[in-house]
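Hi L., both proteins are below.
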Amino acid sequence: MRIVTTPALDWITERPVPLDHAGPTDRAFDPIDEAWLARSMIERFEAVAARFPDRIAVDDGAIRLTYAELRARAYDLAHRLEGMVGPAEPIAAIIPGTAVYPIALLAAFALGRPLTPVDVTHPLARRAAILAEAQPKLALTAEGFELEPELLDAATPRLSIRADGPLPDAPAGPPPPAPESALAGIAFTSGSTGRAKGLAYYQRDIFRVVAEHVNSLHINEDDVILSLASLGAGGNLDVLSALLTGGKVRMLDIKSAGIGETLRVLGEEGVTLLSMIPLVFRTLFSQAGAGEAFRTVRAITTGGDRLSGADLTLFRTTLQPTAHIRATQGSTETGVVFNWLVPRDFVVADNVTAPSGYLGMGKAVALVTPETQSDGVKEGDFLVRSAHMAAGAWQDGRLTPGPFQADPDDPTRKIFDTGDIVRQRPDGLFEYVGRRDRQIKILGLRADPGEVETILRKAPGVEDVVVIPRRTEGEAVLIAYIRPLDLHAPPDPAALRLAVQAEAPPHMVPAEVRLLPMIPRLPNFKPDFVALEMLDRQNRPAPAAAPVALAGAETSQVQAAVETSWTAVLGSASLAEGKPFDESGGDSLKALQLVLNLEQRLKTKLPFDIIDRAMTPSVLASRIAAVLSGEPLDQDDGRPLVFLCPGVGGDEPRMADLRRELADRFAMRVIAYPGIERPAAELTDREGILRAAMAQIQTTAPTGPIRLCAYSAGGAVAFELARRLKAGGREIAALTLIDCRPEIGSHGRAGLFEMQHMRARAAENGLGGLLQDRLVGLLIHLQAFDLLRALVFWRSRHEAHRGAYTRQMVLTHAHGRAFLGWTAGSYDGPLDLIVAEQEKGRDALPPDLGWASHVQTVNRFGLPATHWGLLNPPIRERVVEVLRKTLA
């Protein structure tokens, strides 16, 4: 931290325009003015709850709470906590983003205890590091949500809470007001490994951040705020902005729900406000049907990364003409420093960064050694001075001064060196330039190379490591330089990337890991970053003219198919550079597209197991050549054999990822369903599908115990196979179904989930026009599978990737049609059942989905996810944990 002398600095203290300038100035609302800010947030909530007791305050898609119900549950919890946690003792909230969280938040504020939200979707190592640093005196969890045993010390008390069930008989009022000096919250940034970095906040300062948001956008009781941010600073702002104005907050975890469900909620539930980083908004606004989904949104708030002129154009063409865009810049230490409502007539070039805004409430900034340009713009790294920033750092369970310097002119204020470089324009607007130090932002998130170094230093075979940022025309990435302990047996770079991936957020995983015999260092033993950056520039992959073809006619055909398909799906640059699949922008949808392209060009069925994150084009070609020569990708080596029945659409990349995570324990074999090349009658023949599946099992495992696992409507296949095998005298060692019901009728059509999500994911990749084509839709509706087969073959010849998606849709619907009306019979054996507890309509079903009357016993494993989300990280990790137990 630099020591600053305030008289030498020119502090900027005035904002030239009101907060709502160019905004909804004619919209009526109850502002949070200085009179309110002199009181507490709980007093404001009391006034709102008294005014709107019967209005919906919180909705998570499954549970809705009125203001009266929320008030009763929050204060009941506060009184329960009063005797369990003392003043200034932190409470950890290890809670999913559901209606339970606002109850915990209000209870902590009312009681005057600092709440530490812990995002349950983050890696276990990150959550454990946060809790070790926070040292909570009590952990709050949602009822039914299981914590990993290693997450908390066994002596830490736990309290499970729920948002439904009977209300207290005599609703309690708020506890005695907390003192103004009481801490309200602790938020952790970075800290994904090693020492987590916590910041503590007073309630009065959180109140000011909320007030700035409310007063800028004139938030009132008619607003519905969609809360997508991780619980903590961003999530708290959404929740409190609604609850302190009479609006409704709609809780939704975008990481688990996905883009398709987010757009559905936006389009169907009257959302008016939401906040997110530009990257997420770019993704949402680029989807087919985004305009319809955003039709009720009157304003968005964005920050945390650069907002470009191209972003403004995209957002404006999707939003309603009357909607507003609010831009912000700040940090967890300072809160919002700059903000403004971008005027509708403000335009900048696509490649130019839009201004971050004017100076925020209660803030002053100073540019250190500013450089004045010819147009009057000043540029320099800047300091923030305010009485309303974080209270300090939270380390080892206590409050410390942290990264702040006391203001020598006023002991109530602090000064923070942001490390950011900004420009100040003559009109009072500020523009973000970049980071001064190694703390960089990737995808809007802070990335500390030092934290990545800490992880890599723990890896076997690593003697020394330095991580540097690589800034190119696109997004910044991290590059790791490693000095091995043994140059003759160096660590595997792919394994080192996986080590970082296991402990750090995805944006901090190095794009490349390079090995050096010696890390260049200066005489003072610090890394020579200039030398490393020069080395990085010299060693960046140069685009090759063309990949070298392999010898032989067949391998040449495979190589050509890989080159053409890889280019079509992932681009020519990554092919030329030989980049791995994940570094080329690969995901589950692109894996599906890549395999289907390859199948079309090679005219053969390929297993999805040929795809993994670290695979390069040359590795892919080798695997395909091995498959075509009859070599199995997964050798039988004594591991227990498991037969996996996928959903009715057949195998897919997410199932391959699931198998890959189980491969160390089990030999997984996928049951194949009839493909599009088979006669149309076979595609809808239930008995034929079951006979073919039975033949695959009998051929692969003619003797010995059978283990069966299935996902979605594939559970009908697995269940019928188990019954028939058991009737034939075979031992069923395991039968595990992943979110399957015991009947597929008119209200639970097979393949419905898969078709809906396939449409949504395909729309994300620009294929929505095909899948919504009237002819395809009409033929599917008429069950005209012969004509559909002909259409698939014709389109496959002309547009391989589009024809492939049509094929997948046809198979999903046809196989689903085969099992329409299926009902499970009796099975004299146990059933292990994984249930998606957040699936819409699930609360109307029994906990075991109705299986108890069909099987001997049901062992239920409920997980906090939607049906589709079960196979997506991070919930997939918990599915794998369950399968390791049930299939053993």
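That was the first. Here is the second:
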Amino acid sequence: MVVSGPDNRATLVMVLHHHQPVGNFPEVFRETYDRCYRPTLELLEDFPAIHVSIHLTGPLLMWMSENAPEYVERLVRLSKRRQIEVIGGGFYEPILAMLPVRDARSQVERMNAWMKDRLGVTTPGFWLAERVWQTDLPERLSGMGLGYAPVDDHHFLLAGIPSEDLHGFFRAGWLDSHLDLFPISRDLRYLIPFQLPEALLDYMDRNGRGGHVLTYADDAEKFGVWPETYHWVWEEGYLRSLFEQMTRQSHWLRVASMGEIVAERKPSRRVLLPNASYEEMMEWALPAKMGVRLKSVRRDLEQRGILSSVQPFLRGGIFENFLVKYPDVARMYGRMLQVSDMVKSGESPEALEALMRAQGNDVYWHGLFGGIYLSNLRHEAFSNLLKAEDALIRKGKIALPFVMEGDFDQDGLEELLVLRESYTVWMSPGKGGSLTEIDDRKHFFHLTNTMTRQFETYHDRGNSQEEHASSGVIPSIHDLPTGGGDPADIRYDPRPRRPFVDGIYPPDITGDELDQAFRCEADFSGLSFQTVDRSRDNVLLNAEVRIEEKMFNVSKEFHFSPESFSVRYQVSEEMSGTTSRWVEEKMWATEIPLTMLAGESHGRKLVLRNRPSEPLSWLEASDREEVRGFEGYDDWSKTRFFIDSSLPVRLVLRPIHSVSLSEKGVEKVYQGTIFFLLLPLSLLIREGWQITFSFER
């Protein structure tokens, strides 16, 4: 009888992660497929000894089913011959740790159902989006059929496990549940495909002998889509050469899937890992100024030759901090949880599907890629949340008019969500009596989908080319210079921009000063209004404020009708029968940030009411007097809005451009336009003022 022992060859576990987010442009799907996904799978078919785990996210799987069915057929073929293991996860690539358990389960079940239907198989292996780990995940994900996944060696280093022990896989448990985790080697992530194949073989020879299992897991887009990789990987033949050389060395080196290793071996040991992600992500999650300091510390330690020895103690932030770092992430996440709470009964599959589409991780963070700065991805997320609400309305689960009260973004302030036939508004009395959100519900368009401009680590001029010097044949995307951007293009918002935030300014205030809130003599963005009266169609807010030793009473009355809403301002100067000289010299300004996405595209119009001969541009600064209203129209989405003023106002427009990082480098990106409506404070006090926001005429 022959007894076979464990395979004592060095083993490289390969996990290739393929992802395109919900809402990405069709041409991006096609280009990435042609330059990366298709040739990689075709090449694998030529090398049957190379076994890998492959993960594809839901948006990509659906696109391939419709546009590249031959790819799915090849997946099935290679899976049947046990060369590849297709692993699952959340269908729309959500951060599972940040979802209610019911939603995480729905995402996983959606993926398992697709795999079973199209591939004929499901596996316990899964991809953890952005490798965001929380200590209690084994218990949160229990009962979902998930068994093992790759996470970064950084997680283990933070738990105090030395790098030389990071081979095989580890069992992470919590309460009575567990998951098996493969530590992804950072060294391998920076070797493949950026160094010669011989460098990988040398690394495996030095670290994998004696039956050690080392794990490489990373984005498949590195094979042809990341900058400078297509020529190297395909035209120069890097990947074919790598597979050829690994095949020739099969007497001491094998390439395996995670599933094969789990079937053959026991866990190396038990671990408890802290909340973590990969090293770069934890740096990006830090507040930007702290990120600059961390980079400085790392440079200093590297120059002193001790960076590698202290690296485990340089923790960085946690993924959840993006909810604090970016106000726009916080409000989107708050809206997602609102809708999740509405959908939780499970009685509308259509609403659940739209909710899951809005949970894709890409718009809830920012780092090397555009993330939250990509307005098309934000639009897709908000559009799906509106579609989920609409499905519940049509199902009879929400009756209009609908009003929900709560602290939706967990900032300690009560807010109101109002759904009417044509629109949705999110009202924040404690934030200057402003609106956090305005949506055109009929066209599923988030009109206030703008982005707060804020300092980013890569704006710091100290991020020099030297910091990103590459030691590879081609640079990793992490090694490319970020450059900081042109200082002339960089502007920061003093606070998040919200509709119907008000302030008082001198009469000679300029548009650029308004844009930066310079010379603002009274900023009401943080003024806490009290709700003094509320009915189905009306909300009356009131606040008292001291300015220049004088007390003012400010009231805002919101009136909601099916196709429009209005805001009625009343301001009075207490203990005074007549307006003071100070009041006579000031201007009241109300801001309304809006967007129709790409401001320069054909079919997006912006015109003054009753003055069509004076067209406006979303992309150009403008300053007009005696304006009674304006309207915007988008021929692509068919959304249209009208803003009318009961008094003539000075209308100032300033486009909002961010300077943000993507895989293409630092870019200037249009994020919307902010409209300032100004009128004399004395006129407002004497006559009151009403702004009406309409969606139908």
